[in-house]
Specification:
The chain has eight helices and four strands; from the N terminus they run βαβαββαααααα. By secondary structure, the protein is of the alpha+beta class. Strands 2-1-3-4 form a four-stranded mixed β-sheet, with helices on one face. It is globular and about 45 Å long. The structure holds glutathione.
């Protein structure tokens, strides 16, 4: 059976959400991070993931890491209903997945950590502001695409939307003010209201 390593309250959530969207059974193996002697830094875990981060999966002996890559792999392997049905759809999915990973997630995490996740004494306002400056024009690109079509997938809400909304979950978690991006705001709320998303969010505790 598929094994998912990582606490649910982490990027492992993205993989659990995909499994719920796609009817994939899995065994969950929580792995601690950000504490002294974190399991993610132990040799047995580094053997699975040399980057010592979560999540990692073991799919009947095939081990891989990087949350969005894992989700693309699982969606294709298990014939997820979210998988695009034609080549253009696959192209669009990869376009948004790379854009989100390369251009949006980094700046978003700078904002997330320094305005929300870090304890107040560790937050650096200048880092949050720098992240926000980079993030906003990129959110505007997503807003424009959603204003035109209502979804990011080529024909419907599909893996393109899944990958983007599973990463942008952090904006929702920190209650980031998206009023300047009404289509993005509505799309993110609708994406995270899908039954599978609600189940996965509950696992975060
Ligand atoms: N790009 C990686 C990032 C993985 C990552 O940074 N995971 C965090 C938890 S959400 C982690 O393991 N942090 C522990 C650490 O950096 O030591 C992915 O998407 O899987």
């Amino acid at each position: 059976m598929l094994k998912i390593y990582g606490q649910a309250r982490s990027r492992a959530f993205r993989v659990m959400w995909l499994c719920k969207e796609s009817n994939i059974s899995y065994e969950h193996i929580p792995v601690t991070i950000h504490i002294d002697n974190a399991q993610a830094k132990e040799p047995w875990y580094r053997e699975l993931n040399p980057n010592a981060r979560i999540p990692t999966i073991d799919d009947d002996g095939f081990v891989m890491w990087e949350s969005s890559a894992i989700n693309l792999y699982l969606a294709e392997k298990y014939a997820s209903p979210l998988w695009p049905t034609n080549t253009q759809g696959k192209g669009r999915m990869l376009q948004w997945a790379f854009f989100i990973a390369n251009d949006v997630e980094g700046p978003m995490i700078m904002v997330f950590q320094n305005r929300f996740a870090f304890p107040p004494e560790k937050r650096v306002a200048a880092i949050a502001d720098e992240g926000e400056k980079k993030m906003l024009p990129r959110l505007a690109i997503i807003e424009q695409a959603l204003a035109a079509k209502g979804h990011l997938g080529y024909e419907r809400w599909d893996m393109a939307d899944f990958i983007a909304s599973s990463v942008l979950y952090s904006l929702y978690a920190m209650k980031y003010d998206l009023s300047a991006f009404p289509h993005l705001d509505a799309w993110l709320k609708a994406s995270l209201s899908r039954p599978a998303a609600i189940e996965a969010i509950k696992l975060r505790g």
